[in-house]
Structures are given as C-alpha cells and as structure tokens.
Here is the input.
Amino acid sequence: MGKNHMSRREFLQASVAGLSFMYLPGVGRIKAYPFEFAESGDTFGRLCFNENPLGPSHLAREAMKQAVDEGHRYPDWFSSTLETKIAEHHNVSPNMICAGTGATEIIRLVADAFLYPGDEMVTATPTYSQMAYEAAANGATVVHVPVDERYMIDLSLIKAAITENTKLISLVNPNNPLATIFTKHDMRIFMNSLPPGIIVVVDEAYHHYVHSPYYESCVRYITGGFPVIVIRTFSKAYGLAGVRIGYSVASGGHTSMIGSSQNIGMVSRLGQAAAIASLNDSDHVDNTVSLNDHAKEVLMNGLHALNLEYIPSETNFMMFDTGMSATSVASQLANRGYQVRVGWGMPRHIRVSTGTVDEMYGFIYALQEILGQNSLKDGPPMFGLDRVRPNPFTRECTIQISTLGAERVRLVIYDAAGRMVQSLVNGVMTPGVHDIVWNGRDVRGRNVASGVYVVNLMQGEFATSTRVTVIR
Ligand SMILES: Cc1ncc(COP(=O)(O)O)c(C=O)c1O
Here is the structure.
C-alpha cells in the first residue's frame, strides 16, 4: 500500500494543531466581561462544526434506543442492510456503496485505494483538507489550486494543473469553508475533457442544503460510467455527527477497491440503525433545511446591518469578512460563548455555522458588541442593552433595553464584587425598546456607594452587560 504511518501521525498532529484556530469551551476561554455575572453560563452557540442544531431525527432516535438493547451483539459486519438502503436512495446497485465511520473513514479508504508515493492529487484551496492529509500521508504530492475571485472552485484551473502523474482530483461541492458550489455546466465541460486514468472524488457532505439551480450531485457521472467517486455523510443534514456514518458511491470496481482496506464491523449497530431510520425520515431533512434557511437569513440580515461582507452560502455555514483580525474577533466571540472557526489563509474571515434562529440573533449581537457598532439600531427589534444615561450619575439613570419574545426578562445591578445590588426587572415584557430607571438604591432602599456597577440583562439564552458609575 505504500502507507507511511509516521507521516499519517504527523499529519493527524497537524490537523489537531489546526484546532488551535477554533475556540473551544475551556480552551483559552477568558471568563470575563461581559458575561462574568451571566447566570446562563457557558456556551450559547457551538457554531464551529457545521452540525445540525435539530439533532438526530425522531425515527433515528427511536432506532438507536432499540439498538441499545442489542448492544452486546456484533453489528451486521458489512453494513449490508444499510448499504442496500443507501443504494435504493441513490437508485444504484448495493455493490456501488461503501459505508464507513463517517466520511472521514471513507476519505482515508479512498486515499489508501488510489494514492501511492509519486502520485499527484489536484485539489482546490481553501477547501476541506482531510483528503490532502490522507494523500500526503500516503506519499502522494498534493497540488493546491486557488479558488477564483468569487471564491468558487475554478475547474478550468484544476484541469490546467493536471500532469502525467495526476492520479486523483479531489473536489468538495459545496466547498467547505467557502460554502460555494461549482456549476453543473462547468462540471460537464470538465468531465468531458478529463484525460483517461484520473479519478475524480467529489465530497458532497453539504449536498442537502444547496438551493442553487446551477448545482447538481455528481452521482449522475457514476451511473454514466465516468470515473467519479462521491462521498456523503450522515453528520450534517441527517444530524448524526456523533454517531459517525458516511459512505461512498462509486462503480462496483472502485467500491471494492475502496472497501479493500476497511476493517469489518466498523459501523456500529447503533450507527447502522440510526442511518437506516434517517433515510426513512425525509421530513427531518426538510425541517433541517428550512431551519437552516431561516437562521441563515437572520445571519445575513445581521451581517448586512453590521456592514460586513459575506460569501453567499449554499450550506449550513457562512464565511464573512470581519474587516479586522479574525482571530481577535473569534476569541472575543468565544468569551461570549460563540465558537467559530478561522484559518485557511484568510486572516480577516470567520466561518460561522448556522445554528438555531436564537443563536443567530445572539451571535449578531455579540458581534455587534465586539465591533463596537450601533448599526442595528434602525433594524428589527432585537435583544440588547442599548445605553445608560447619564453615566456617571448621582441621583438616577435611565437604562435602555431591547427585548425579544415571550421569555422572562431580568435586569439586575451587581456591585464590582459580583453581589446583587438591585433587581430592576424580573418578568415578561412586550418585545421592543424599554427605558428602565434606576434610582441608585439597593434592594433595601439605601443609596449605593460611589463606584462602578454592572448592569446585567438576561432573557432566555441571551445575556449582556454594561457598566455604570455612581458618583455621590
Ligand atoms: C466537506 C466535509 N467532508 C467531510 C466531513 C467529515 O464528515 P464525517 O463527520 O462524516 O466524518 C466534513 C466535516 O465537517 C466536511 O466538512
């Protein structure tokens, strides 16, 4: 196989090192302003892995519960029922499907089957890098072709990078992290002009989220006899990232090569049950996509209101230009509970996953705070602590807040040591902008001492704070 295990380890280390670009809870998180007094605690938005905020489908949950009772029994060693079900889904023969523990395992199997030292693999940059790691780990040379000025993979440039050593072309459609597609028109031209003997791998992890009429899955090329391998995952629209299932669709010949280095029984009993059930639950995929569309709209409106440029997205994540150091903005977002990704040689861009609608509102507010802007003032009513006037004050101040929906609102004053001084609001309010007066007294009616106080506004999963100074 020509596999270089040391290289693989080094590359895995490199990919783990890449996690330093991602802000994870507890990893370098500074528990400080503005959430030091927020009761709702840690993470509000895990917006760094492009997961499905709805979770697994109802049918998959039920199937997994039932499979638990059979947890002591080995699974179907070859995932035969699952592969047959996937084959039906794509209208191909079961010998054209190889199921594995996530697309991640399939990517390794594909590299093991087709890439040897001296081979070249052509891919785009930036893109999802797992295939490049696996190719390099197998001793192949990876040729990175930059995306075009619209952040789209340029198939004519990919073709121009082909040499006599090119064995495999790796494409991600829609691409990650850019969320753009290459068009079916360009792909047809590309496929019809491809020199013989080159395999084209297309990772379609985000297939379900695409709405563009210019997109199509590349499964059609496989049934048309072209040397194409499509990789799919259950981690995204099916909401099974933690269960680890992915698969390839390829010709029977390619599929047996892909499966040849796979250990038997890799896909767990729970995983097989969940994936089979998920394929029966197209409603869940539809709900996932419509939630994604809605959340993405909130995100786009927010970014627009903040005058931030974004790359139009065909996926469940989006790249936007912060106009400043993305690492700095990302770490401040992490302090506010929002985990995002930066990197890919794009120092001002952040990749944010579309979570729930509430997460998107919270994210935009956190971003607004960080950017120190007030450009959402004229937009739709949103959650926030708008201003305190006068500040500093002696007798009384007015705190302007914006509230959202039906959830209880709490507006609390703390002293610098974190002790509660006064509770100004604790109940349901009509959504909108409210002026709340604080007369500078504590809960017992005594004038508070001179000093800095924290004003903390909470509603549901949202929380924000500001400071006010009392001068006696
Ligand atoms: C393009 C792409 N392919 C594959 C994967 C990994 O999929 P899996 O969870 O099935 O290993 C991801 C994960 O984010 C991805 O973005």
